[in-house]
Every structure is written in C-alpha cells, then in structure tokens.
C-alpha cells in the first residue's frame, strides 16, 4: 500500500467535508512543533535538556527543562500560524493570547506540552497531549472561561509519544488514527487507520502504591482483578504502569487494556490527579472514537462541564466492558442506578 502522509490524510478529510482548511492547517502546525520536541527529547544529556528548570508551574510542580522547552516550541509555532484565537497550557496559569502582529483564527488550543515529566531524566517515553475547541463567536480576547467547554465540543484531539518511535494519534470525531514519524523523510505517515480498542482485556494500569488511599469500590474492583482465577472474575489480569499517561494510553490504543487514576484520599481535595481540559478530555475523545470508554468512575468524562482551566478529575479509560464494570461498582456504592 502506498504510504499516506499526514498532509495527504488531512486533505482527504477536508475533501470528505469532515474538517475545514483552518483545522487542517492547525494540525499541521502542531505536528511540526511536535517534530521539534521529538528532536529535543532525543538529545538527552547531550542537548542539555535533562533536569529541573529551577521554576514551578501553576500546579506548584517543579518544572523540568523539557517542560519549558516544549511549552515554548508549541507557543511559538502556534503564535504565527493564524488559526488560533488563543492557547492554554499545563505550564501556564492563564491563556496565552496571540500577539497582535499575527493574524488570529477562531480555534482554541489546549495542551500538556510534556506529559510524563517524572520519566524524562530516566529515558522513558514521554509525550504531548492536545485538544482543539472552537472559540465562541464574538470573542477576540479569549479568557479561561472560553476554554471551559465540555469534551463533547472538541473538534480534534491528539497525543504524540516520544518513544523508540515518535507516534501521533489523532481524532476529529471520525475514528482514531495513528501516524509514525518517518525520520528520513521528516514527516508523519499513516500507520493505522480506524483503530479499534478490544472491548475485553486482561491488562490494567494503575499506581498500586496508592491502593490504601482508594475508595471502597476501587478497592473491590482492583481486588477482584488481583484475585484472578481464584476470585469472582475467574480470570487472571496482568498489570503495567509506565507513569506517563501517553505511554499507558498508547498501549491501550494498541492492544487494549484499562487505565485508572482514581480519586483517593491524597488527591480528593484537588478533585483528582489528572487535568480535565488537556489530559482527560483529549484522551477520552481518542479512546471513545476507537470504541473504548472514559469515565470519572461515576460519569462520562466528555459530558463534564469544566469549572476551571486546570481542573483535575478522576480518570477511568480503555476497554469498554472493564470501564463499565468499574464505573458500575462506584455508582452502586453511591446507591445510584447503572
Ligand atoms: P504530567 O507529567 O504532565 O504532570 O502528568 C501527570 C502524570 O505524569 C501522568 O502522565 C501519569 O499518568 C501520572 O502523572 C503518574 O502519576 P504517579 O506519579 O502517581 O505515578
């Protein structure tokens, strides 16, 4: 089969009327920025990009040098692209307006410039996660509230994994597709079209060291997985935890599985660990478009009405039947139907 480049794929989507020219150009700009981040991450110590930046982000977390470098690469590339009204990032408290010297567009871009920061210095896969929304009509200076749209309003979402290969996984709401960076040509090439996540799985991902802090329904659900053939599930389950959401989710998009970052006694006050607008919503859109499911343990993530730019939520996503069961245990414990 003749290789299909990302640009060819985008032109096909435009011809099919599934996306417009502005959204297509915006994806090209984001993809180009991620190619530069891929080069930066691959340099490691030789590029002087490892270690802390000596500053904290809005979440109070120590920023890694690559957090800051990736954030700047994405801001700079998208400032002059002409498709954006503004963008927002995990690394910035407030939305970043487009400088007046550049033309503005009517899209809003949200991103986690470098997901899995705790793995950078130990050479484990990290990534970039992004979500694209429409800027509300008549808004020329978007504020945080204009980004606070439910995940169902996303026009596109994607992640890029910087691993042995650099891969981008993308959805516009018409299936989920994977592109591999061909380093010789310097462009992303379609490697899997219309990905389907198996509804059943025997593989789960969760940070088990938090077990004692979990709610009872989560203890029950994971307890049954660990009991395996000797327990009510009568089936053995295997566990994986990379601690880079992009890598854990990509494994699920590739061969199925489930990923959990549940509410626990440590993160309850913050509402969870992972961020709704630039981690949970884009991953939920990608997974749902590949036939999986994504909930907070109680409700569909993409139906949440966001209340803050950096709002955190519990995340349950992956193979449909397991997510439905884990969610059922939580709702049952709450005395809710379903
Ligand atoms: P950032 O690195 O972007 O802050 O993301 C949070 C994250 O690293 C996720 O990628 C990952 O799933 C999770 O935190 C790991 O959490 P823990 O350190 O508890 O294992």
How is the secondary structure organized here?
Layout: H1 6-15, H2 21-43, E1 52-56, E2 62-64, H3 65-79, E3 84-89, E4 96-97, E5 107-115, E6 126-134, H4 144-147, E7 156-162, E8 166-171, E9 176-182, E10 187-192, E11 203-205, H5 216-227, E12 238-239, H6 245-255, E13 258-261, E14 274-275, H7 276-289, E15 293-295, E16 312-313, E17 315-318, H8 320-333
Parallel strand pairs: 3-5, 11-12, 11-13
Antiparallel strand pairs: 1-2, 3-4, 5-6, 6-7, 7-8, 8-9, 9-10, 13-17, 14-16, 15-17
Helix pairs in contact: 2-3, 5-8
The structure holds 1,6-di-O-phosphono-beta-D-fructofuranose (FBP).
Q: Would you give an account of this structure?
A:
The protein is an alpha+beta fold. The protein has helices at 6-15, 21-43, 65-79, 144-147, 216-227, 245-255, 276-289, 320-333; strands at residues 52-56, 62-64, 84-89, 96-97, 107-115, 126-134, 156-162, 166-171, 176-182, 187-192, 203-205, 238-239, 258-261, 274-275, 293-295, 312-313, 315-318. An eight-stranded mixed β-sheet has the order 4-3-5-6-7-8-9-10, with helices on both faces. It has a five-stranded mixed β-sheet with strand order 12-11-13-17-15, sandwiched between helices. Strand 8 (166-171) and strand 9 form a beta hairpin. It is globular, with a radius of gyration of 19 Å. The termini are far apart. The model has no long low-confidence stretch (mean pLDDT 96). Bound molecules: 1,6-di-O-phosphono-beta-D-fructofuranose (FBP).
Concise description?
The chain has helices spanning 6-15, 21-43, 65-79, 144-147, 216-227, 245-255, 276-289, 320-333; strands at residues 52-56, 62-64, 84-89, 96-97, 107-115, 126-134, 156-162, 166-171, 176-182, 187-192, 203-205, 238-239, 258-261, 274-275, 293-295, 312-313, 315-318. With 338 residues, it is of the alpha+beta class.
């Amino acid at each position: 089969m003749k290789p299909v480049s990302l640009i060819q794929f985008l032109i096909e989507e435009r011809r099919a009327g599934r996306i417009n020219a502005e959204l297509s150009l915006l994806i090209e700009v984001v993809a180009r920025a991620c190619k530069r981040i891929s080069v930066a991450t691959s340099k490691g110590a030789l590029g002087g990009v490892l270690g802390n930046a000596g500053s904290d982000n809005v979440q109070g977390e120590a920023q890694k040098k690559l957090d800051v470098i990736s954030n700047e690469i994405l801001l700079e590339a998208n400032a002059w692209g002409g498709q954006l009204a503004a963008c927002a990032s995990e690394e910035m408290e407030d939305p970043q307006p487009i400088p007046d010297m550049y033309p503005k567009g009517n899209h809003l871009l949200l991103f986690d410039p470098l997901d899995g920061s705790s793995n950078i210095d130990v050479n484990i896969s990290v990534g970039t996660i992004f979500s694209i929304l429409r800027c509300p009509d008549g808004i020329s200076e978007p504020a945080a509230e204009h980004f606070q749209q439910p995940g169902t309003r996303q026009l596109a979402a994607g992640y890029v994994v910087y691993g042995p290969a650099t891969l981008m996984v993308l959805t516009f709401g018409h299936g989920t597709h994977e592109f591999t960076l061909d380093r010789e040509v310097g462009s992303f090439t379609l490697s899997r079209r219309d990905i389907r996540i198996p509804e059943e799985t025997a593989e789960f991902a969760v940070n088990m060291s938090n077990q004692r802090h979990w709610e009872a329904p989560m203890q029950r659900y994971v307890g049954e997985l660990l009991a395996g053939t000797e327990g009510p599930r009568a089936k053995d389950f295997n566990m994986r935890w990379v601690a880079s959401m992009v890598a854990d989710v990509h494994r699920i998009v590739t061969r199925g599985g489930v990923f959990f970052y549940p509410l626990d006694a440590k993160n309850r006050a913050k509402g969870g660990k992972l961020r709704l607008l630039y981690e949970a919503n884009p991953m939920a859109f990608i997974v749902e478009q590949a036939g999986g499911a994504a909930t907070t343990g109680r409700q569909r993530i993409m139906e949440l009405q966001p209340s803050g730019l950096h709002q955190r939520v519990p995340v349950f996503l992956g193979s449909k039947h397991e997510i439905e069961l884990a969610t059922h245990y939580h709702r049952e414990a709450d005395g809710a139907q379903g």
